[in-house]
Amino acid sequence: MSRKPISLKREIPLLVWLVVVWAALWQDFSPGNLLFGALIAVVVARIFYLPPVELSGRFNLLRAFAFAFVFLGKVAAASFQVMYLAIFKGPRVTNAVVAVPLRSQSDLLMTATGHVISLIPGSLVVEVDRSTSTLYIHGLNIRNSADSDRLRKEVQDTEASLIRIMGSAEEVEALRNDQRQLRETRQLRDETGEAL
Amino acid sequence: MTADASGFDAFIDALTAVFLVAGALMSLAAAIGLLRFPDLMSRMHAATKPQVLGLFLVLAAIGLQLRTWWVWPVLLVAWIFQLLTVPVSAHMVGRAGYRTKHLQKELLSTDELADVVRRAAAEEQAEQDARDAAGSKRP
Amino acid sequence: MKETILIVTAVILTLAAAGAIVRIAVGPSLLDRVLAADVLLAILGAALAIDMAMNRHLNNLMLLVALTLIGFIGSVTVARFVADRRPNPHDS
User: Fold this and answer.
1) Domain locations along chain B
2) Chains meeting C at 3+ CB pairs closer than 8 A?
3) What pLDDT was estimated at residue A120?
4) Average pLDDT, chain A
5) What is the spatial distance between Cα A139 and Cα B120, in angstroms, rounded to a whole number?
């Protein structure tokens, strides 16, 4: 029992989730039940000790709300796409395993990105390399390198929006720098293109 | 679903009907995908993902029909359980499928993991050889 | 209206269940069968949910959650044992 106790503030998200599950399973949101649920949540969190999830302490509720809608839209669109592929393409479908390097080193963001990507139909995380934070993704209907580039961009965009929701301040800053750089190179290319 | 429903009720009922039929169609899509896709990995896409949307639609239909506020958190918890478990089981099955060579290489246009796996296997082999050599030197 | 929805969804779900059962029977590998069994479980869940929506009750909601968890534990367990059952890791 040499483990460091976790501060209560760190445990709050877990406790809130446990209370919500408790109340939902009883289908009773009365104050008394919530209080009893909170008591049980604290006891359970103390007895069944798990390593704490390293949250960054930042959470943008507005962006999370917007992301939920975008996510639902993507899931719906991609579900119909898989349906179309199953019915019309069937056995002639071509797939690929694509390596996608991520920006963030944090376990939480990698897990969240992998989850979201796995939930959107047409992509599935096959293997994770934590040391280089690379996801290996099996994509449905990837015929050429343009398709795999699109998949890679989609995964990185998903990670970017997750960083904006709950990444640490440094990660948000790094993301901003990245995108400024990208914009500048694109602008430069456009200008030289015009010059030519 | 009463016959003398007002305009709003009729709209809710129609929305429920659309959600239910679409949710059922998602299950059918999963089954068609299971039957028609050529290898384990593409079947996996069809099998796990349309269910997420399907369950969402059907749960939303329940919420629309019951019309009390406290069902929504309950339904949300049920859906979040699905959201948390589906990717994990899909990943586990997919990884097992990749490692036990269920993947049909000729169906892939690129495989960027294969090189990594080959390199790792070579390293492991080299380590094994070194250990064997060291073992044979001092019997 | 109600009967029509019930009949339409019942036909769709029956076809889907038949497809999943065919895949369980055909195989060809254990993982395919696990996947198809998972889909069959999800179809069962959808049927339960449709019944709840049409008859306006929540009696089976916890059964639905339990089904999700059982499917999850089942496929994860099988996937682990399939991955571990290699005779020799160097034979590929």
Assistant:
1) 3-137
2) A, B
3) 79
4) 79
5) 23
CB < 8 Å to C71, chain B = 85, 89
Domain ranges of chain C: 2-86
| Cβ–Cβ gap B17/C49 under 8 Å | no
Q: What is the pLDDT of residues B45-77, one digit of tens each?
A: 887 778 888 888 988 888 888 878 778 888 888
Two structure tokens written together for C92? 């590929």
Residue A1 has pLDDT above 50, yes or no: no
Does ipTM top 0.90?
no
Instruction: List CB contacts (< 8 A) between A115 and chain B.
Output: 83-84, 87
How many Å lie between the alpha carbon of C31 and the closest alpha carbon of chain A? 15
Q: Which residues of chain C have pLDDT under 50?
A: 88-92
Domain extent listing, chain A: 8-47, 61-195
What pLDDT shows up at residue A6? 61
Residues of B in contact with A24 (CB under 8 A): 73-74, 76-78
CA B112 vs CA A90, A162, A192: distances in Å: 24, 25, 33
Residue of C nearest to B51 (CA): C42
